[in-house]
Amino acid sequence: MLNKVPEVTIWFWVIKILCTTVGESFADWINMKLGVGLVNTAWIFTAVFVVVLAIQLRLKRYVPFPYWLTVVVVSVTGTLYTDILTDQLNVPLWISSAVFSVLLAVVFGVWWLRERTLSIHSVTTLPRESFYWLAVLVTFALGTATGDWTLELTGWSPGASVLLPLGLIAAITALWKSGANPVLSFWLAYILTRPLGANIGDWLASPKVAQPGEPTGLALGTFTTSLIFLGLILATVVYLTVTRSDVTETYEAAHAAHATGDPRKERVALAGFGLLAVATTGLLVWAHGQPHVGPAPEADNTSAVQMAPGQAVKKFPPAKVSALRTLASTSLKDARSGNAKGAHAAAQSLRDLWDADQASLQPLDNTGWTSIDAQMDQVLKTFGIDHSNPPMSPAQQEKELNALLTDMG
Predict the structure, then answer these.
(1) ∠ CA 6-21-28, rounded to 5°
(2) Long-range pairs for 52-60 at CB < 8 Å and ≥24 separation?
(3) Number of Cβ atoms within 10 Å of the Cβ of 337
(4) Among the four residues 64, 217, 234, 296, which has the most C-beta atoms within 10 Å?
């Protein structure tokens, strides 16, 4: 059977980073447009992933379009899984990173025990390809968690944080050139492309002017960023389809030389990986200890300037304001009728949509966005969403929801 994975050339890494960037920006945009919340969006993309993966698994050889379509979908799906843990279940990022690290180790362990190889040059059977895609899914979730955790620890902007994974990938490449195990080098670099692409996506989509503690970027928005990178992916896939420069039609034996290196050089390179890990840890500890702007305290949200009814959203697109009002009204209606579960679910969807809209709304009117954001936070606090307090009384929920609806006009 022919190999099902493209040859690892510069094109492989270019399109992988493009797919990873789309995973970050497109996940945010589609969540905003669907307006059904993170969990339902994740279910939708899980179903899409199952479909495209089934098509990919049925193929007998590597074909660029279905392969990279699967990578794009799995990048969005893996991102959503981590976002659910962080935003919906309030799982700390260090715990998510640890859990996904262990899960990836388990996947690799079972894969090795069954197949005795983790090389992508040997993805020639259905079991091996199944392990491959499971590993890819976990690497996207792990890369999302570790990338976000790095930003949380350091307070770096997305633009500055691009340099860390980029530098690590360059160091891994140098160690690979010096004789490091190619399989280990590949998977380490593969994981790091996730935070690299995500930071690039955040940097392009984030507003140029932001509140303290918020990232700054080029203000392209999640839709424009997604459109640009999807177009680049399509163009690259068309090129690869025509030129077949990433196609390998050889069996595992043809790549045996890649798996048989110099044991002494591999041990030296392994020590280099260890030193790289220690240096990275030291850098993150140092950055965490430096004065930097973190997320604004909750109490600061209440001090935002008060604006006349409807004034805060005057510069926002009416369709987006209407979608927010609909969710707030649904939550209010359920709270009044005693449907606590429905009110809470609508409030969560309201939060998800508001967060997803930030990149496009805040640049339009930073003052108005800040005013609404402060009242939005008061609403979420009454439901115990993103706050440590238990849900408040329905009367308090109604009060804050009414205030939010008044602010939105």
Answers:
(1) 130
(2) 53/133, 56/4, 56/129, 56/133, 57/126, 57/129, 57/130, 59/4, 60/1, 60/2
(3) 11
(4) 217
What's the rounded Cα separation, in Å, for the pair 168 and 182?
16
Q: What is the DSSP secondary structure assignment for residue 87, as one 8-state letter?
A: I
How far apart CA 328 and CA 406 sit, in angstroms, is 11
DSSP string, 327-340: HHHHHHHHHHHT-H
**Residue that the structure tokens 């976002």 belong to:** 83
Angle of helix 126-154 versus helix 64-83 axis, rounded to 10: 40
Please state, in angstroms and rounded to a whole number, the distance separating the CA atoms of residues 252 and 402: 65
Length of the chain, in residues: 409
- By CB atoms closer than 10 A (0-12, 13-18, 19+), residue 302 is exposed
Q: Containing H/E element for 167?
A: helix 163-177
Report which residue type is found at 288: H
* Per-residue model confidence as pLDDT tens digits over 20-52: 887 767 766 666 665 566 788 888 889 999 999
**pLDDT, position 331:** 92
Write out pLDDT tens, residues 74-116: 988 998 898 888 877 878 889 999 999 999 999 999 999 999 9
